[in-house]
Amino acid sequence: MSYGKCLLKTHSLGIIARRLTKSSEMALQSQKLERDTNDPQAQDRPHETQLYFEVPMYQWPIIYASDYNIRFLGLEKLHPFDAGKWGRVYEFLKEAGMLQDDTVVRPREATTDDLRVVHTKGYLDSLKWSITVAGITEVPPVAFLPNFIVQRKVLRPFRYQTGGSILAGKLAMERGWAINIGGGFHHCSAAHGGGFCAYADITLAVKFLFEKVEGVAKAMIVDLDAHQGNGYERDFMNDDRVYILDVYNRGVYPHDGYAKRAIKRKVELGHFTEDQEYLSLVRTHLEGALNEFSPDIIVYNAGTDILDGDPLGMLAISAQGIIERDQIVFQKARTRGIPIMMLTAGGYQKCTARIIADSVLNLRELGIISCDEAENVPKPTETKAIQRSWSDGGILRKFRSCSRVTRSQTQDDLQEQQEHQGVQQQDNNHEPALKSTL
Asked: Which pTM does this prediction carry?
């Protein structure tokens, strides 16, 4: 499909989805479902949860389950989002020899009681209408499916990813870092979903930390997805415990002016912003944010829809630029001793799974993330051949040639980290600090 046709298809689906959402809202109103004003905030209601559990030290603080992936009769192909991205990220990391089935953490599905920590009863009830879910996922045919199928094939994967995001917060506090190969549903708030986001996993992860983990009183959300994170912004509008740094394309969805009021440091980009400008802005504003606010944890929403050629993000960042961006954020957090949890968020091209895997492998190669016990777990006797990294070339060259990578501007951060944390890395002035990992 051509780029123009992809945009036209996306625009058409968006119009239909918005009409479906409006229709579903009218239907819900006629049934007199509970609204926000009649529903007490669930965060005041203590509850027991199975989402927090002890993780063996031989497992990486990397969270994934095959239940994350959405597949049903090809309907997932009607949305630009790659609904099987998460599984491919996991397979790439397995092929690279980093992960094994027994060294990755499998999360549990978020229950209604878990979701009620943030979500209103009225909103959760609205998801029992397939037409509402069709509007949220922007896949109109979902409206015609029986809701029990929608619950199992569409919403259940979202609930598993939400459970993974919540667990990532706990793991990050225990291990210093954690990655959920999924989640990042930043358009969903307590009472409203949209933009392929049905559950407010970011708000939930932060609220769980505040409620259940000692020593967590302040959190910083660093959202580097191409789209504004309007969902959690609405949830934390008047909460001084949460600092929001949001870097996004001002010319794309959701254009939520009200939610922007919650952003403490707002960086709005124009269409087709490229690596040099983008990375400079990320580096400068992240440093500024950390100088203004001292969080107990960083929630990093690491969307890859900033990639050049993404039909919805409309930016022009290279694959290597995404890898360096993640390196900047992790180095800043690790150097300052701030726990960090990463969510994979948006990304609407098939190649983004390979880039996410390459980024994680780069962090491991540089010693920014590690797990000695997991590294020492015996490897299988046979391994698959590792496919060539798409972020090294291949199909990505159709979008942007990965030109020669110069010495990383984050090298000073890495050297500082070496001094304070003993990170081992070869120091060769003739090689780039940003390494190709495959």
From this structure: 0.81
